[in-house]
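Input chain follows. Return structure tokens only.
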Amino acid sequence: MSRKTKSELTFILKLSLLFLILLASKVNRSSDMLTAAKQALSPKDSISVITASIRD
């Protein structure tokens, strides 16, 4: 292989690696946001319902 070909392949490899890192970061951020949304929508404490019967 010529030096130019090796250089081009190295560039393509580095660019692909950068793309994969950015994609993984975006997926990770999305899952973090999903987890945060689930925690925000879930009740903070357990809710107990108290029923009282009224006797005449």
